[in-house]
Q: What sequence folds into this?
């Protein structure tokens, strides 16, 4: 395996709220090799976006990294100050946010916004070089370079998302985190954007983390998949493994709850109950109140996140199809 | 087509929105949001209306419950043995009409009044219709809450929407729509804001209630996979027109219209070992502002030929066994 570009080690992050501490990310560990793509799936509130903002340390004031390390090429981001962190942000890790509409400033031309990002983080180009580079970036993501003289409202939803991707690429990062990059888009636009992103990754060789609630989207773009539930990573493996040999009952339930347009029409699985309140997460395995296989031990002890063979990790006392 | 008389029959339905031309200036441009739409739904069946954003599916839904008035066309509803034209109900008749037809909205965070308790929200249709007195209403609301899976009802009845999760709120919205036992319910993307594990529960619930209470749905969604599970028939809309319609499984397995084909092939498949072909379609969706008299799909169609450009938009024709398509080339 190639050298990991990012290693997350027992990351724990809490939000301090008036009602108490919210355990948003709990003991999450994974590693991502250079040029590799991974997907994080889970339902809303499971901590996917909290992991992304922790990696970039773009956390709100009430968030605290309580423990763990974020190793990026030998540097522990968890220990860095805001000033030091700023050197890595955008230049080494950049992010494509969920709502492209909101990540562009409506009163500035799109090209100017990208050049601002480049000036701030690289600051080595002349004006002419910057424009040249933006034109290249626009071509790369399938936008007409003339569009850089226009304002965000003149763009369609898909074009805005492309512009945001161009911005994320502008400083040649080693890793891009894409948080629900296509969620607000129609399927046909989504399809062309996902194809584009895969091509870009092949060509430019950066690592990618895709975050989505849609396992079908994740299946199409990721080599590895991490499944999250209630702040914990419950399963982690190669995409085919996750889809064809899920170990954790939550992963299996998530797969079979997903309707598909192809193949035979099968009965959709139903999970009873709702995801837990992370102010008072259930003890033991956090999935146990909804798990059909739960026993006493699940209620009392947190299962280890361990290798079940061939780099297929899961945290479950009663793994499916084995042991 | 089944022999039974349809519950809802839509004929030549049209809605044009004028584009604002400025103060005191007559508008001479229109968005053709819904343009000559025809379909019918037999009682107890459900029709799914699918399409991309801007295709006119939500406008169609709103027209069917008369939240907006149509520019032209008829919507016939068979209720209590008589047929009424929803499109021309006078103000006085609306109250009786609302007893038959209800709507479930997409966003359960916005469709419930945050200052009213669940009981207030669910019992309001009963109060408006003057059904029962307070105690009877309370009983009826409790019954409905159990039916939608919010039990015991006493723990939910006097709570406020902010105390409930998204899935629970959508259950409240469903209870409110069904409390006066309507015949016909327009559901506009009722599950698109919900998480997968909660979504299946709501889908099951809606189907179960349809069977138990004899409700007929018009199910509006952008998600073909959800439509597959929620409908017996499927209509695909593009720029204000229905371009294909037929039995859901038949349309999904054997799509005829090039737009339906493109839409289907763009749906991601939850299996990393499969590779999809890119959808065969050009450009992006536009707005139907004063459309040219030719096929609406002409600019994006991979098959576009002379006949498509020279003639008006093709009519929705039966291409065999009740599978309708609006295309000159199939």
A:
């Amino acid at each position: 395996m190639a050298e990991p570009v990012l290693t997350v080690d027992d990351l724990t992050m809490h939000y301090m709220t008036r009602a108490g501490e919210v355990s948003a990310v709990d003991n999450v560990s994974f590693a991502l090799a250079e040029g590799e793509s991974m997907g994080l799936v889970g339902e809303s509130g499971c901590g996917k976006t909290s992991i992304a903002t922790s990696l970039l340390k773009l956390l709100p004031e009430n968030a605290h990294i309580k423990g763990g390390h974020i190793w990026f090429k030998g540097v522990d981001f968890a220990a860095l100050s805001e000033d030091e962190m700023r050197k890595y942000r955008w230049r080494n890790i950049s992010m494509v946010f969920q709502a492209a509409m909101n990540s562009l400033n409506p009163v500035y031309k799109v090209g100017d916004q990208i050049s601002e990002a480049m000036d701030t983080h690289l600051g080595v180009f002349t004006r002419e070089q910057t424009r040249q580079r933006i034109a290249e970036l626009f071509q790369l993501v399938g936008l007409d370079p003339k569009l850089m003289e226009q304002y965000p409202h003149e763009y369609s939803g898909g074009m805005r998302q492309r512009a945001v991707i161009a911005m994320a690429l502008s400083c040649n990062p080693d890793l891009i985190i894409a948080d629900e990059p296509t969620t607000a888009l129609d399927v046909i636009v989504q399809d062309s954007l996902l194809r584009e992103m895969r091509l870009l990754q092949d060509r430019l060789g950066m690592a990618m983390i895709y975050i989505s609630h849609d396992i079908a989207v994740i299946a199409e773009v990721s080599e590895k998949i991490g499944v999250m539930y209630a702040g914990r990573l419950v399963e982690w493996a190669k995409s085919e493994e996750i889809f064809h040999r899920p170990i954790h009952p939550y992963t299996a339930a998530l797969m079979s709850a997903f309707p598909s347009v192809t193949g035979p029409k099968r009965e959709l699985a139903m999970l009873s109950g709702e995801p837990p309140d992370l102010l008072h997460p259930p003890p033991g395995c956090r999935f146990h109140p909804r798990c059909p296989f739960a026993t006493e031990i699940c209620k009392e002890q947190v299962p280890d996140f361990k290798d079940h063979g061939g780099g297929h990790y899961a945290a479950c006392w009663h793994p499916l199809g084995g042991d | 087509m089944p022999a039974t008389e349809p519950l809802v029959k839509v004929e030549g339905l049209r809605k044009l929105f004028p584009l604002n031309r400025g103060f005191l200036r007559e508008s001479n441009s229109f968005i053709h949001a819904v343009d000559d739409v025809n379909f019918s739904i037999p009682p107890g069946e459900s029709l799914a209306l699918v399409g991309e954003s801007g295709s006119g599916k939500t406008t169609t839904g709103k027209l069917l419950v008369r939240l907006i008035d149509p520019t032209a066309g008829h919507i016939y509803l068979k209720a209590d043995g008589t047929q009424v034209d929803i499109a021309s109900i006078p103000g006085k008749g609306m109250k009786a009409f609302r007893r038959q037809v209800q709507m479930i909205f997409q966003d359960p965070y916005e469709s419930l009044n945050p200052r009213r308790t669940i009981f207030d929200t669910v019992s309001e249709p009963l109060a408006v219709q003057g059904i029962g007195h307070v105690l009877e209403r309370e009983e009826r609301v409790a019954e409905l809450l159990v039916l939608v899976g919010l039990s015991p009802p006493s723990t939910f009845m006097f709570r406020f929407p902010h105390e409930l999760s998204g899935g629970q709120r959508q259950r409240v919205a469903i209870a409110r729509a069904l409390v006066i036992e309507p015949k016909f319910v327009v559901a506009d993307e009722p599950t698109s804001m919900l998480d997968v594990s909660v979504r299946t529960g709501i889908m099951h619930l809606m189907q179960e209630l349809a069977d138990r209470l004899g409700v007929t749905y018009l199910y509006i969604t952008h998600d073909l996979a959800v439509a597959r599970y929620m409908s017996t028939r499927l209509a695909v809309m593009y720029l204000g027109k229905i371009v294909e319609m037929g039995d859901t499984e038949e349309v999904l397995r054997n799509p005829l219209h090039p737009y339906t084909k493109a839409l289907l092939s763009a749906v991601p498949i939850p299996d990393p070992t499969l590779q999809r072909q890119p959808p065969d379609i050009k450009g992006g969706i536009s707005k139907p502002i004063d459309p040219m008299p030719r096929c609406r799909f002409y600019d994006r169609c991979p098959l576009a030929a002379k006949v498509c450009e020279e003639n008006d938009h093709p009519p929705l024709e039966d291409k065999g066994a009740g599978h309708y398509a609006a295309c000159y080339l199939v």
